[in-house]
Protein backbone atom coordinates (compact mmCIF):
# COMPACT_ATOMS: atom_id res chain seq x y z
CA UNK A 1 0.00 0.00 0.00
CA UNK A 2 2.82 2.37 0.86
CA UNK A 3 4.52 1.74 -2.47
CA UNK A 4 1.29 2.29 -4.39
CA UNK A 5 0.49 5.52 -2.55
CA UNK A 6 3.99 6.82 -3.17
CA UNK A 7 3.69 5.94 -6.86
CA UNK A 8 0.34 7.71 -7.17
CA UNK A 9 1.76 10.79 -5.44
CA UNK A 10 4.74 10.85 -7.81
CA UNK A 11 2.44 10.55 -10.81
CA UNK A 12 0.25 13.41 -9.61
CA UNK A 13 3.33 15.53 -8.98
CA UNK A 14 4.49 14.79 -12.52
CA UNK A 15 1.14 15.87 -13.93
CA UNK A 16 1.21 19.09 -11.90
CA UNK A 17 4.74 19.85 -13.06
CA UNK A 18 3.77 19.14 -16.66
CA UNK A 19 0.76 21.41 -16.33
CA UNK A 20 2.96 24.13 -14.85
CA UNK A 21 5.46 23.77 -17.67
CA UNK A 22 2.81 23.99 -20.35
CA UNK A 23 1.41 27.12 -18.72
CA UNK A 24 4.68 29.01 -18.25
CA UNK A 25 3.50 31.79 -20.57
CA UNK A 26 -0.25 31.78 -19.98
CA UNK A 27 -1.47 35.38 -20.01
CA UNK A 28 1.83 36.62 -21.47
CA UNK A 29 2.23 38.59 -24.69
CA UNK A 30 5.36 37.88 -26.70
CA UNK A 31 6.61 39.89 -29.69
CA UNK A 32 8.83 37.97 -32.13
CA UNK A 33 10.59 39.48 -35.15
CA UNK A 34 11.70 37.42 -38.12
CA UNK A 35 8.78 35.14 -37.31
CA UNK A 36 7.96 34.17 -40.87
CA UNK A 37 10.60 31.45 -41.11
CA UNK A 38 13.59 29.81 -39.48
CA UNK A 39 14.39 30.43 -35.84
CA UNK A 40 11.78 33.17 -35.43
CA UNK A 41 8.99 30.92 -36.67
CA UNK A 42 10.02 28.08 -34.35
CA UNK A 43 10.24 30.51 -31.43
CA UNK A 44 6.70 31.72 -32.17
CA UNK A 45 5.34 28.17 -32.31
CA UNK A 46 7.05 27.17 -29.06
CA UNK A 47 5.74 30.19 -27.18
CA UNK A 48 2.23 29.52 -28.51
CA UNK A 49 2.44 25.90 -27.36
CA UNK A 50 3.21 27.14 -23.87
CA UNK A 51 0.23 29.46 -23.70
CA UNK A 52 1.54 32.84 -24.86
CA UNK A 53 -0.21 35.27 -27.15
CA UNK A 54 2.37 35.76 -29.88
CA UNK A 55 2.65 38.84 -32.10
CA UNK A 56 4.60 37.40 -35.02
CA UNK A 57 6.36 40.09 -37.06
CA UNK A 58 7.99 39.66 -40.44
CA UNK A 59 8.23 41.40 -43.77
CA UNK A 60 6.66 38.25 -45.27
CA UNK A 61 5.19 35.00 -44.00
CA UNK A 62 5.45 32.21 -46.61
CA UNK A 63 3.59 29.71 -44.41
CA UNK A 64 0.55 31.15 -42.57
CA UNK A 65 0.22 30.34 -38.89
CA UNK A 66 -2.72 28.11 -38.02
CA UNK A 67 -2.45 28.61 -34.25
CA UNK A 68 -5.20 30.87 -32.89
CA UNK A 69 -2.86 32.54 -30.39
CA UNK A 70 -0.29 33.58 -33.04
CA UNK A 71 -1.14 36.88 -34.73
CA UNK A 72 0.96 37.70 -37.79
CA UNK A 73 1.72 41.34 -38.63
CA UNK A 74 3.56 42.47 -41.74
CA UNK A 75 6.40 44.48 -40.26
CA UNK A 76 9.73 45.90 -41.43
CA UNK A 77 12.09 46.05 -38.43
CA UNK A 78 14.02 48.91 -40.08
CA UNK A 79 11.06 51.30 -40.01
CA UNK A 80 10.24 53.46 -37.02
CA UNK A 81 6.67 53.87 -38.23
CA UNK A 82 6.08 50.12 -38.12
CA UNK A 83 7.33 49.97 -34.53
CA UNK A 84 5.25 53.02 -33.59
CA UNK A 85 2.11 51.39 -35.01
CA UNK A 86 2.79 48.20 -33.05
CA UNK A 87 3.33 50.10 -29.80
CA UNK A 88 0.06 51.98 -30.31
CA UNK A 89 -1.75 48.68 -30.77
CA UNK A 90 -0.12 47.00 -27.75
CA UNK A 91 -0.65 50.04 -25.52
CA UNK A 92 -4.40 49.77 -25.93
CA UNK A 93 -4.40 46.01 -25.31
CA UNK A 94 -2.16 43.68 -23.36
CA UNK A 95 1.21 45.44 -23.50
CA UNK A 96 4.26 43.21 -23.93
CA UNK A 97 5.98 40.78 -21.57
CA UNK A 98 8.71 39.53 -23.87
CA UNK A 99 10.52 40.65 -27.02
CA UNK A 100 12.53 38.26 -29.18
CA UNK A 101 14.60 39.96 -31.88
CA UNK A 102 15.23 37.23 -34.44
CA UNK A 103 15.10 39.05 -37.79
CA UNK A 104 18.37 38.94 -39.67
CA UNK A 105 20.04 38.84 -43.08
CA UNK A 106 23.51 37.86 -44.30
CA UNK A 107 26.20 39.63 -46.30
CA UNK A 108 29.15 37.46 -47.28
CA UNK A 109 31.53 40.12 -48.64
CA UNK A 110 34.96 40.68 -47.05
CA UNK A 111 35.72 44.16 -45.80
CA UNK A 112 37.67 45.33 -48.83
CA UNK A 113 34.89 44.27 -51.21
CA UNK A 114 31.72 45.11 -49.32
CA UNK A 115 29.30 47.44 -51.08
CA UNK A 116 28.28 50.37 -48.89
CA UNK A 117 24.57 49.99 -49.65
CA UNK A 118 24.75 46.29 -48.74
CA UNK A 119 26.66 47.13 -45.55
CA UNK A 120 23.99 49.64 -44.55
CA UNK A 121 21.15 47.21 -45.35
CA UNK A 122 22.73 44.51 -43.18
CA UNK A 123 23.24 46.97 -40.35
CA UNK A 124 19.69 48.26 -40.73
CA UNK A 125 18.12 44.82 -40.34
CA UNK A 126 20.57 43.07 -38.02
CA UNK A 127 21.43 45.94 -35.67
CA UNK A 128 19.05 48.89 -36.15
CA UNK A 129 16.09 46.49 -36.09
CA UNK A 130 17.18 45.22 -32.68
CA UNK A 131 17.71 48.74 -31.35
CA UNK A 132 14.37 49.98 -32.68
CA UNK A 133 12.57 46.96 -31.27
CA UNK A 134 14.03 47.41 -27.79
CA UNK A 135 13.50 51.17 -27.88
CA UNK A 136 9.85 50.65 -28.77
CA UNK A 137 8.99 47.79 -26.41
CA UNK A 138 10.98 48.65 -23.26
CA UNK A 139 8.59 51.49 -22.23
CA UNK A 140 5.74 48.96 -22.26
CA UNK A 141 7.71 46.76 -19.85
CA UNK A 142 8.85 49.37 -17.35
CA UNK A 143 5.91 49.09 -14.97
CA UNK A 144 5.71 45.28 -14.69
CA UNK A 145 9.09 44.07 -15.94
CA UNK A 146 9.80 41.84 -18.90
CA UNK A 147 12.35 39.84 -20.82
CA UNK A 148 14.28 40.53 -24.03
CA UNK A 149 16.09 37.83 -25.97
CA UNK A 150 18.23 38.93 -28.91
CA UNK A 151 19.41 36.41 -31.48
CA UNK A 152 23.05 37.23 -32.19
CA UNK A 153 25.46 34.67 -33.68
CA UNK A 154 28.67 32.84 -32.85
CA UNK A 155 30.09 35.32 -35.34
CA UNK A 156 29.24 38.01 -32.82
CA UNK A 157 31.80 36.32 -30.54
CA UNK A 158 34.45 34.95 -32.90
CA UNK A 159 35.39 35.63 -36.51
CA UNK A 160 35.81 33.74 -39.76
CA UNK A 161 37.05 35.08 -43.07
CA UNK A 162 34.65 37.43 -44.88
CA UNK A 163 31.09 38.39 -43.85
CA UNK A 164 32.35 41.71 -42.45
CA UNK A 165 28.99 43.47 -42.10
CA UNK A 166 27.34 40.47 -40.46
CA UNK A 167 30.22 40.09 -37.99
CA UNK A 168 30.08 43.77 -37.05
CA UNK A 169 26.29 43.83 -36.65
CA UNK A 170 26.11 40.69 -34.52
CA UNK A 171 28.98 41.79 -32.27
CA UNK A 172 27.16 45.08 -31.74
CA UNK A 173 23.93 43.23 -30.88
CA UNK A 174 25.81 41.31 -28.17
CA UNK A 175 27.06 44.47 -26.48
CA UNK A 176 23.80 46.37 -26.98
CA UNK A 177 22.09 43.52 -25.13
CA UNK A 178 24.47 43.93 -22.21
CA UNK A 179 23.85 47.67 -22.20
CA UNK A 180 20.10 47.10 -21.99
CA UNK A 181 20.58 44.53 -19.22
CA UNK A 182 22.48 46.97 -17.04
CA UNK A 183 20.36 50.01 -17.87
CA UNK A 184 16.95 48.46 -17.28
CA UNK A 185 17.66 46.03 -14.45
CA UNK A 186 16.07 48.50 -11.96
CA UNK A 187 12.81 48.04 -13.88
CA UNK A 188 13.09 44.23 -13.64
CA UNK A 189 13.66 44.02 -17.39
CA UNK A 190 16.11 41.28 -18.29
CA UNK A 191 18.04 41.21 -21.59
CA UNK A 192 20.06 38.26 -22.85
CA UNK A 193 21.60 37.18 -26.15
CA UNK A 194 21.77 33.77 -27.80
CA UNK A 195 24.59 33.00 -30.21
CA UNK A 196 23.57 30.18 -32.58
CA UNK A 197 26.09 28.24 -34.58
CA UNK A 198 25.08 26.78 -37.93
CA UNK A 199 21.34 26.14 -37.82
CA UNK A 200 19.22 24.48 -40.50
CA UNK A 201 17.11 27.50 -41.42
CA UNK A 202 15.91 28.31 -44.96
CA UNK A 203 18.58 31.02 -45.20
CA UNK A 204 21.38 28.63 -44.25
CA UNK A 205 20.11 25.80 -46.43
CA UNK A 206 20.32 28.13 -49.46
CA UNK A 207 24.03 28.65 -48.87
CA UNK A 208 26.52 26.69 -51.02
CA UNK A 209 26.87 23.14 -49.73
CA UNK A 210 30.64 23.44 -49.49
CA UNK A 211 30.24 26.47 -47.22
CA UNK A 212 27.86 24.61 -44.91
CA UNK A 213 29.98 21.47 -44.89
CA UNK A 214 33.02 23.51 -43.88
CA UNK A 215 31.02 24.90 -40.94
CA UNK A 216 29.78 21.46 -39.93
CA UNK A 217 33.29 20.01 -40.10
CA UNK A 218 34.41 22.58 -37.53
CA UNK A 219 31.44 21.89 -35.24
CA UNK A 220 32.34 19.30 -32.58
CA UNK A 221 28.85 17.77 -32.56
CA UNK A 222 29.24 17.26 -36.31
CA UNK A 223 25.87 18.49 -37.53
CA UNK A 224 23.68 21.53 -38.03
CA UNK A 225 21.48 22.59 -35.16
CA UNK A 226 17.72 22.62 -35.46
CA UNK A 227 15.67 25.82 -35.09
CA UNK A 228 13.75 24.23 -32.22
CA UNK A 229 17.02 23.78 -30.32
CA UNK A 230 17.46 27.55 -30.36
CA UNK A 231 13.78 28.15 -29.58
CA UNK A 232 13.94 26.05 -26.42
CA UNK A 233 16.85 28.14 -25.16
CA UNK A 234 14.88 31.31 -25.95
CA UNK A 235 11.95 30.04 -23.89
CA UNK A 236 14.21 29.28 -20.96
CA UNK A 237 15.78 32.75 -21.07
CA UNK A 238 12.36 34.40 -21.31
CA UNK A 239 10.85 32.39 -18.47
CA UNK A 240 10.95 32.83 -14.71
CA UNK A 241 13.32 29.84 -14.64
CA UNK A 242 16.00 32.34 -15.73
CA UNK A 243 14.92 35.10 -13.34
CA UNK A 244 18.49 35.84 -12.19
CA UNK A 245 19.96 35.80 -15.70
CA UNK A 246 20.56 39.08 -17.47
CA UNK A 247 23.34 40.36 -19.71
CA UNK A 248 24.29 36.80 -20.64
CA UNK A 249 25.71 35.77 -24.01
CA UNK A 250 24.97 32.07 -24.46
CA UNK A 251 26.38 30.08 -27.39
CA UNK A 252 24.14 27.30 -28.72
CA UNK A 253 26.59 26.15 -31.36
CA UNK A 254 27.40 22.46 -31.08
CA UNK A 255 30.72 23.33 -29.47
CA UNK A 256 31.97 25.76 -32.14
CA UNK A 257 33.20 28.41 -29.68
CA UNK A 258 34.61 25.86 -27.21
CA UNK A 259 37.61 25.27 -29.49
Q: How are the strands of the largest sheet arranged? A: 3-2-1-4-5-6-7
Specify the CATH architecture. Answer: 3-Layer(aba) Sandwich
Question: How would you name the CATH homologous superfamily?
Answer: NAD(P)-binding Rossmann-like Domain
Number of separate helices: 8
Q: What is the CA-based Rg, rounded?
A: 19 Å
Shape: globular
Distance between the termini: 54 Å
Overall number of domains = 1
Largest sheet entry: 7 strands, parallel
Secondary structure elements and their pairing?
Elements: H1 2-22, E1 29-33, H2 38-49, E2 53-58, E3 70-74, H3 80-91, E4 98-101, H4 116-141, E5 146-151, H5 164-184, E6 189-196, H6 202-205, H7 209-217, H8 227-238, E7 249-252
Parallel strand pairs: 1-2, 1-4, 2-3, 4-5, 5-6, 6-7
Helix pairs in contact: 2-8, 3-4, 4-5
Amino acid sequence: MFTQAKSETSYLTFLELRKHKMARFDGKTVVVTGAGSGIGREVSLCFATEGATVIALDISCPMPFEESNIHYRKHDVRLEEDWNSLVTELSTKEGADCLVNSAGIMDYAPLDEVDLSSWRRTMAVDLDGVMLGMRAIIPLMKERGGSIVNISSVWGLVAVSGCAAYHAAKAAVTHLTRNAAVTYAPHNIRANAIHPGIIATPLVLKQPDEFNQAMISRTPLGRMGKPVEIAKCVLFMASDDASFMTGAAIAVDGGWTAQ
